[in-house]
Every structure is written in C-alpha cells, then in structure tokens.
Amino acid sequence: MADLLKRVGAGGLLGSERPVLVLLSGGRDSVCLLDVAVRLAPDVEALHCNYGLRAEAGADEVHCAALCERLAVTLHVHRPRGPSGNLQAWARDRRYAEAERLAPGDIAAGHTATDQVETVLYRLASSPGRRALLGMAAREGRLVRPLLRATRDETAAHCAARGLPWREDASNDDPAFARNRARATLLPALRSLHPAAEANVLRTLDLLRDEAAVLDGVLDAALAEAGDPPAVAALGALPPALRRLALQRLADRAASGRAPAVGHRTQEVLALREGGALDLGGGLRAAVRRGALTLGPSVGRAAPRRGAAPS
Length: 311
Known about the structure:
Layout: H1 2-11, E1 20-23, H2 28-40, E2 44-49, H3 57-70, E3 74-78, H4 87-102, E4 106-108, H5 113-126, H6 131-134, E5 139-140, E6 143-144, H7 152-162, H8 178-193, H9 197-226, H10 232-236, H11 240-254, H12 266-270, E7 277-281, E8 284-289, E9 292-297
C-alpha cells in the first residue's frame, strides 16, 4: 500500500496545487484512485455516472455516496439520458463531457497497468499503426491517469488494506464486448507463455514512447520545412514512413485532437492533382490547392483528381 502511494506521488500527477475530479465508478480501481487522491492532492471531488442500465446501478450510486462521505469528498452524480449508438462509446463520451463541465482542474481516471496492456493488445488487433503500440498516455490535456504504474491486483490490495469495499460490475465479464474478450483470453494466454508477459509489454511500451518522441521531433522539422500548409511536392519527397506520419499529424490537427487512422491513405492523398479532393473518413477531407495539401471538414461532394503516385 505504501509503495503504491509512493509511486503515484512520484509520478507528479497528483499532489500539485491543481484541484482534481476523480471519475468514480465504485470499482476497485476508481475506489483506490479516490483514496490515493485524497491523501496526495489538496482539493479532490468525485463524479459518478449512473447510466441506469443495470439492476445494480442504484446500489453502485449509494456505495459511491457512502465512500465519499467517509473520505469527506464532494460527490457529483450524473444520470445521462440515452443510450445511443455504441454503448461503451456513448457512456465514455457522456462521462468525460460531464467531467469537463464540472472540473476546475484535472480529471483523474483509474486506468491501471493492466488496462494499459489490454488496451495495447486490443488496439493492435483492431487498428493498424504505431498509435496502437503507444497505449494510453499518463496525461492528455486535463485528463490524468495516476495509476498507470499499478496493476489491478495492486489496487485491490490497497483497497483491502485500507478497508475500502468496492463494487463488481458483471458487465466487465460479458464476452459481448471485445475488450472483455481480450481480458479473458489474451492476457491469460500471454501469461502462459511467460510469467512476466505484462511487464515486458509495459517495458516495450516505455521504449516505444521514448523512440516516438525522437521521431516526432524529426516529423516537426519536416513539416516546418514543407510549409504551412505543406507543399504536396515536399511531402512526396519525404521517406514513406514520414509521409504517413505527416498525413496523420495533419489529420489530427484538423480534427482538433485524434483523428481516425489515415496513414494508409497517404499514397492516394499525395496522388491528388491541383483542385482534387478526397474524403478520408471521420468527417475529414484532403484537398490540394495551389500545390499545398489542406485537411478540413468534409462538406458537399469531393472531386478527386489524381496524378501519378509518389515513388
């Protein structure tokens, strides 16, 4: 318990002068996070979202209220209406939107090292590109993940040592959700191959993040030299890997965050001639104007005009 507290404190994501809003589901990880935040941060509040989708939802809310009363933490309860579309995406979007509205400072999520490994495996299987291998960042804007160096077993041990009960969500075992299948099948398979499998994945992740920082610096320099907006000819002269990364960077900028993966469309985009346009998905369109490549929202109908693909 003391070791986990020390590691989280050393991470610097809690304990600054910034207030923090903890996303509290009532499960072991978020209960652990709330307790750690109270002991490290100067100003802590919590947000619980009651989606009303399970018979146990009301009891989860009561549990969170009792925990916050015990820890002297202000609890905000949000009951979003819905759902619509993808259930997990809808729940995540509603939770973060309400957190952004309420939080005066940082927003803390209880993602653990175990979640990190599951995320990498899931993304590796479901979406190509290096982004899949970089996992979740410890900080993304105001969102912080102080427990990324702690395993799910460690958060459970912390709660048990502190006498803090938690709630179990049966939907986390539902094989209808792809992430649950990864948890139930892929992780045990990795452990059967090597007992340090999860630690090795996390160590590889650290190395890839270090290398990605260097590569991002090279990309920054290449884009600066290509101009703003970048000249298509300058992008076409880059090595293939930098072309892909450049297109993804431009897409992310146009989407004000993380755009869908578009690197696999690089050859099509750079083959556009003057006046041509191409819809990339995710509401984004690439267009060539005055020899430069611009990315913006898809409006109306694209008129692709393609020339010779770059070598």
